[in-house]
Amino acid sequence: MSDFLTGIAFFLIIEGLVYALAPSVLKRMAELLPQIPENQLRLSGLFAVALGVLMVWFLRTA
Description:
- By secondary structure, this protein is an all-alpha fold.
- It has one domain (about 1-60).
- Helix content is about 85%, strand content about 0%.
- It contains three helices and no strands.
- The longest helix is centred in the C-terminal third of the chain and has 24 residues, at about 40-60.
- The chain is flat and about 40 Å long.
- Keywords: Membrane, Transmembrane, Transmembrane helix.
């Protein structure tokens, strides 16, 4: 449970840094988001999940 909460904390730190350091970039990305096809968003999300799982697996086994 501690690792899970640490992961959420890191996510919040990174998310907060994006809002704090590049709010205009984030706003432009949000404006472009509706133009991206759902299939592309879905594949990007699945790729991010797979990459995250592989990273955790690698870090836990190394």
